[in-house]
Design a protein that fits this description.
The protein has 26 helices and 23 strands. The strands form three sheets. A ten-stranded mixed sheet has the order 1-15-16-17-19-18-20-21-22-23, sandwiched between helices. The protein is elongated.
């Protein structure tokens, strides 16, 4: 290389004289602080810990999903001594299955079907040489009807069937009244032409026409099935359960119809989404003598990637398709491996219609179908059961057409139909209705379920009150924590989901991050379980004296946030306007601060974790609770921490954490919920407010049956008698002040009844979704017994 020009060399010397002292000072500062915290190993650098955390949890949940098959046996005590003994031994499993799919309401048993007609549309829809087709409906729940077609053979009725099409098929299609299916695939019509009385219900479809609120001028691209699922799930119901109850009501009516000399047998035949409903209905209703599931049956290990309206909380903990099938035995079940229409996701997004969850589904793989059939046969392997489950497919595992001749022949024989004639269908029936519109029927079916669910929402607070806040005896604050133990156990085990607790001491790794004028920060990673770790940033005040133990404030970020977001005091930082550097400000005031990372980051990546966890009876907060439990283990063991003075303060999603984690982890001495506290059940389930999560893409928010068990006031009751505070900006768009005030009033009343009204506060301020840090800071100083600074502190930079 050549020699530097003299002028450039002179300039570099000047810069060196300026920079070298700074570098030297920096070295001294870093040398003054250890590279790691005592008792920790050195933490590696240059790692995206947020992404690593999500990826690790994903591996953990996939592994747990695979191993769930072997663990399911622990939920069953099958007695194969006789059919009667077997039926008695699975009663509790059947009851848990009904609860899981939301089929918990007592369905009506219709005395008669109602004909659906008008001056332009006769109830007798069509008639051929062999069958008549009627438009009918039947009551299922208050204000909810099943609706579809009744096909009656003109000859003797030899059997009765509920034929359930796919969600995107109308009853008219499988009855031959509407184009779309080849005649041989019109299984409802073929069954009727072979002597069966057939009811064909309408399923909630996958369009999004009615997914929204016309009065609010707000719509989504959620399929109708997802639109019902989201609001129902929060209230312990499910679109699956609603439709199973529609089938059960239809079965009850059919079972009451007289036969000619002997009672008629009754079966269900379902295709694709209808196959799911058929399988689940037969598992619950013992009057179903035989069942065909076409195009739906396989290992459910990948169910988390299917459309979200199939999300059943805790399903894989106890039930795969094989276990569900075992609830049908020894009644006859055929699994028809048939091709289905591929679902690539919800309807496309467009202006004014967004927010649907991703989800795909295609024809089940034959190996998966065969394996699950084999597993079911092994679960119920008794001489009295015989060959109760049969797989039907084409050559070399190829799919067959729905309702193949072989399938229908065996099904009809089982139902007692003598000599079924499986000839090509005759002349197609002609729909006589002049102005029939299936979309109007679909609109009515959707609206009935919306209104039923919204009535459940309206009653949910009184249901919760009857369980806890107005019925549990309030004696005094001293005994209240023990009174809450059963409710805490229920919330953790049955609603949020509890991960097995790691017994080994926490192993932590750390590294020096930054040294400011008032505190030093460290990156800290703590092992939780294989592939799962906790990570956060610890801020240690420099004013600490040797041997001194100080209170800790755990400062929790919100959605898509990072620990640094709570610490930075740079007004130009992307998220400063939310957090206002509150973690650093508290460290400036002398608190030890820990800013943990919660894994709600990565858009759909973390929401998929919720999908995976739900199927195992867990949730994202199951993982977060396990992480915070280990964080508390580690913090409590540090020589600079007073383990009895660890408080929690979270904003937004961190506010959600502030409600759930301290409610269950009693080592948190207090909790502050900022920017999230409100009427949480209404927030998740109402169709009548623009504040509702039903209109957003946050599809992970519903928690199964939370509406009938624990809203925020009930969670605050579990935090009591420890101090609890709400921080609320009037212009925070999360919810209106009225929702916040209503829910907080229930909390304030409880604290007053306990004789500790001074331990709870709410601070309103004229601001948006942000940390205010005025009343909350005073609250922390007072209840964590740490003196407030005597003068205004300059921010750490």
């Amino acid at each position: 290389m050549g020699t530097m020009p003299a002028r450039f060399a002179s300039r570099m010397n000047q810069i060196s004289r300026f920079i070298l002292p700074i570098l030297s000072l920096t070295s001294v500062l870093h040398a003054a602080q250890p590279a790691t915290l005592p008792g920790t190993q050195l933490l590696e650098v240059d790692v995206d810990r947020s992404a690593s955390m999500v990826e690790g949890i994903d591996r953990f949940l996939k592994r747990e999903t695979r191993s769930s098959i072997d663990r399911r046996a622990g939920w069953w005590t099958r007695d194969a001594a006789s059919p009667e003994a077997y039926a008695a031994s699975i009663v509790t499993n059947r009851a848990r299955f009904a609860r899981a799919i939301g089929a918990v309401d007592e369905h009506l048993k219709p005395e008669a079907l109602e004909y659906v007609s008008s001056t332009s549309s006769p109830a007798l829809v069509a008639e051929t040489e062999s069958i008549r087709v009627w438009a009918v409906r039947w009551p299922v729940l208050p204000g909810v009807f099943g609706e579809g077609l009744l096909l009656e053979p003109k000859g003797a009725v030899q059997a009765q069937v509920v034929a359930i099409p796919d969600a995107d098929q109308t009853p008219e299609m499988v009855a031959g009244l509407e184009r779309g299916l080849e005649p041989m695939a019109q299984f409802a019509r073929r069954l009727a032409e072979n002597g069966c009385r057939v009811i064909v219900p309408t399923l909630i479809d996958r369009k999004n026409t009615f997914s929204g609120n016309e009065a609010l001028k707000r719509f989504t691209n959620q399929p109708h099935r997802e639109w019902i699922y989201r609001q129902a799930f929060e209230l312990g119901r499910h679109v699956i359960g609603y439709e199973v109850l529609k089938v059960c009501s239809a079965i009850d009516w059919l079972s009451a119809q007289p036969g000619q000399g002997t009672a008629l047998k009754t079966g269900v035949f379902g295709y694709a989404e209808g196959g799911l409903i058929a399988l689940y209905s037969a598992a619950l209703h013992l009057k179903i003598d035989a069942c065909v599931v076409s195009g739906y049956y396989e290992s459910r290990d990948g169910a988390w990637a299917e459309p979200i309206y199939r999300n059943v909380f805790g399903l894989l903990r106890e039930f795969g398709d094989a276990e569900i099938a075992s609830l049908i035995a020894p009644r006859k079940l055929w699994i028809e491996h048939s091709e289905v229409h591929t679902i690539n996701g919800p309807p496309p997004t467009k202006a004014g219609r967004q927010g649907a969850a991703p989800g795909r589904w295609a024809t089940p793989d034959y190996i998966s179908v065969e394996g699950e059939v084999t597993r079911a046969a092994r679960l119920v392997n008794a001489s009295w059961a015989g060959q109760w489950i049969t797989l039907l497919n084409g050559s070399e595992g190829a799919p067959v057409s729905p309702g193949s001749d072989k399938t229908l022949r065996e099904f009809l024989n089982q139902l007692g139909v003598s000599r079924p004639q499986l000839l090509p269908p005759g002349k197609a029936p002609l729909d006589q209705r002049k102005s029939f519109d299936p979309d109007r029927r679909q609109a009515a079916q959707v609206e009935e379920l919306v209104q039923f669910t919204q009535r459940l929402l309206g009653r949910s607070e009184s249901v919760r009150d009857a369980r806890l806040l107005r019925t549990v005896p309030v004696s005094n604050a001293t005994n209240w924590a023990s009174t809450m133990k059963p409710f805490q156990q229920e919330l953790w085990d049955e609603v949020i989901g509890r991960l097995p607790r790691t017994k080994a001491p926490p192993i932590a790794r750390s590294r020096l991050l930054k040294e400011g004028p008032n505190w030093t920060s460290y990156d800290v990673v703590i092992d939780v379980s294989p592939d799962v770790f906790a990570w956060g940033v610890l801020l240690l005040p420099k004013s600490m004296k040797p041997g001194e133990r100080r209170p800790v404030v755990v400062c929790q970020h919100g959605l898509e946030g990072l620990p640094e977001d709570t610490i930075t005091q740079d007004p130009k930082a992307p998220n400063f306007h939310y957090y206002q550097g509150f973690a650093a400000r508290l460290a400036d005031r002398g608190f030890v601060v820990f800013a943990p990372h919660n894994p709600y980051r990565g858009h759909d990546q973390f929401r998929v974790l919720q999908r995976q966890a739900n199927l195992l009876g867990w949730s994202l907060f199951s993982v977060i609770l396990a992480q915070h439990d280990r964080i508390l283990d580690w913090l409590s063991a540090q020589p600079f921490v007073d383990a009895k003075r660890i408080g929690f303060y979270g904003l937004s999603y961190g506010g959600k954490t502030a409600m759930r984690v301290p409610a269950l982890l009693e080592r948190y001495a207090l909790s502050i919920c900022s920017g999230d506290f409100n009427d949480w059940i209404t927030k998740n389930a109402t169709v009548d407010s623009l504040h509702s999560y039903l209109f957003t893409g946050e599809y992970e928010m519903p928690e199964f049956n939370l509406g009938n068990t624990f809203s925020y006031a009930e969670m605050a009751a579990m935090i009591a008698p420890r101090p609890f505070m709400v921080e609320r900006g009037h212009r925070d768009a999360v919810a209106p002040d009225e929702w916040v005030a209503h829910e907080y009033a229930r909390v304030r009343r409880l604290y007053a009844q306990l004789g500790i009204p001074e331990r709870t506060e709410i601070e309103y301020f004229d601001g948006p979704h942000t940390i205010h840090g005025v009343g909350t800071f005073r609250f922390l100083h007072h209840h964590l017994k740490w003196p407030e600074p005597s003068e205004t502190l300059a921010p750490s930079r």
